[in-house]
Fold this sequence. Notes:
Strand content: 25-35%
Bound molecules: cytidine-5'-monophosphate
Helix content: 25-40%
Low-confidence stretches: none
Mean pLDDT: 96
Radius of gyration: 19 Å
Number of strands: 12
Distance between the termini: 17 Å
Order of helices and strands: EEEHHEHHHEEEHHHHEHHEEHEE
Shape: globular
Largest sheet: 8 strands, mixed
Amino acid sequence: MKSYTLIAPAKINLYLEIVGDRPDGFHELVMILQSIELADRIAITPNKIPAFRVRCDRQELTNEKENLAYKAAQLMRQAFPEAFANWGGADIFIEKRIPIAAGLAGGSTDAAAVLVGLDLMWNLGLTKPELQDLGAQLGSDIPFCVLGGTAIATGRGEILDSIASLHSLWVVLAKSENLAVSTPWAYKTYRQQFGHTYIQDEEAMKSRARELHSSALMDAIAHNDGANIARNLYNDLEKAVLPEHPQVQKLKEAFQNAAVLGTMMSGSGPTVFALCESLEEAERVKAKVQAEMDDPAIGFWITQFSGHGISIQ
Ligand code: C5P
């Protein structure tokens, strides 16, 4: 049995619309998700014992059983008991590069990498849709992390429709290390404040997804028009998170002052991203925002759109 090292990219949301409540307690969403090159590295090594051991180079993630990567390994064990009995478990090492609790699907992409890695290690021959279905049992973003690139996501976020990959825009990400936003909190707060606007009718919910197909953002994506993609970024969760966290609002304003193509909070935040046409522009924006914010706790990353999900190194 071989060892594998997988590259697990983060994602940003170019579009996130909350449409209504679902019977399972989640929200019905219409989103456009985009992989970025900023990625974790996951090494999976057969350990020939009947257990999984998950380690990470970041202290915040030392509780292995709480880690989504560990849960993904346990799910594979339950789904494929014979493979586990025959081949044993694995040692999983996560080199964390994606900021944690940041709205970038860092935990989800590590879990997606474990699904892909164990499929390879145990030689199961699973298809992408099969891996995505397994991922959906653990988290709404995991199916997209398996697939990657650019995709429309509906339902809980697990129903995916790939869009031809975009020409690579540059992305500047910024996040304060003192701030983490809980995703359940963000959705709960949104429901409390905007629940009265939710669409109830199932057909009307579906038509929201259809309307996105003919939106200005989709047109910009089809034409690879970076300026118009950036102008049409959208995220409903900003309405819940920004009033509660003025630092995030301030960061967004600093990006706007730096004359970026467009800026938005990703997912449930608190990471703010800005889109730029070139690396030089991204570096200029980073320097300007860093100077304006003048806060050493804010981390900055420069990265690019990526056309793929989990890949083997
Ligand atoms: O699926 P995941 O575990 O990533 O979701 C985290 C939380 O975000 C859920 O427990 C739920 O509170 C909220 N959520 C939601 N509707 C979605 C996705 C997530 O309400 N479609």
